Amino acid sequence: MTDHAPLAAAASAAEAMDGIYRWQRWIYDLTRKYYLLGRDRLIADLDAADGASVLEIGCGTGRNLVAAARRYPDARLHGFDISGQMLDTARRALLRRALKQRVTLGRADATTFDPAMFGRPAFERLYISYTLSMIPGWRLAAERAAAAIAPGGKLLIVDFGQQEGLPRWFKALLFAWLRRFHVHPSAELPGVLADIAERHGLALDCRSLYRGYAVYAVLRRPT
């Protein structure tokens, strides 16, 4: 019974995400454009060299993969999501922009994924954009991502912060809105990333952006 528990949990999570995004995926990028702040900065900070392997964890509609493919035309791009609905939208987005052959997509759970699903032991660049706050087991997802950083590589994360520099009413309204979509920003994120960095021998740069609106973190593995 225990052996089947992770599979059952993953299937349940996938079904839940498909239910949420079955219709939202068509307007997702339009409605998120103005409040998923820091995504373009993250893409720029990837600084992916020619031939570098890049992985997006929780690729959603493919918006970030399209941006990365345009910015780094000679990088090897990969992405996965737990939602089949979102992956379908991502494939359509890549196809429309003639990028389908440049990006490899897969379906996986961020808490259990293995780089081997893409035929690799690790990646030079990984990124997670506004995804951890949607994953119940986000600590494990961050741990798995950190373990998949190749020597000399880095993992970049941007997600909702605790709005500490903004009015209380703004935080209350934003968090209430986010809960409607099963998004739960955690005040523990910086501390958890610091613990992961220490245990994995990584250097961590974690900062607050836009008066606490977002947390922006970079974990680097020494060569």
UniProtKB/TrEMBL annotation:
Residues of the Methyltransferase domain: 54-153
Recorded metabolic or biological pathway in which this protein acts: Lipid metabolism; Phospholipid metabolism
Keywords associated with the record: Methyltransferase, Transferase
Pfam families found in the cross-reference section: Methyltransf_25 (PF13649)
Gene3D superfamilies: Vaccinia Virus protein VP39
Presence of keyword Transferase: yes
Catalytic activity: phosphoethanolamine + S-adenosyl-L-methionine = N-methylethanolamine phosphate + S-adenosyl-L-homocysteine + H(+)
Top-rank taxon, per record: Bacteria
PANTHER family to which the protein is assigned, alphabetical: PHOSPHOETHANOLAMINE METHYLTRANSFERASE (PTHR44307), PHOSPHOETHANOLAMINE METHYLTRANSFERASE ISOFORM X1 (PTHR44307:SF2)
Descriptive protein name: S-adenosylmethionine-diacylgycerolhomoserine-N-methyltransferase
Organism encoding this protein: Labrys wisconsinensis
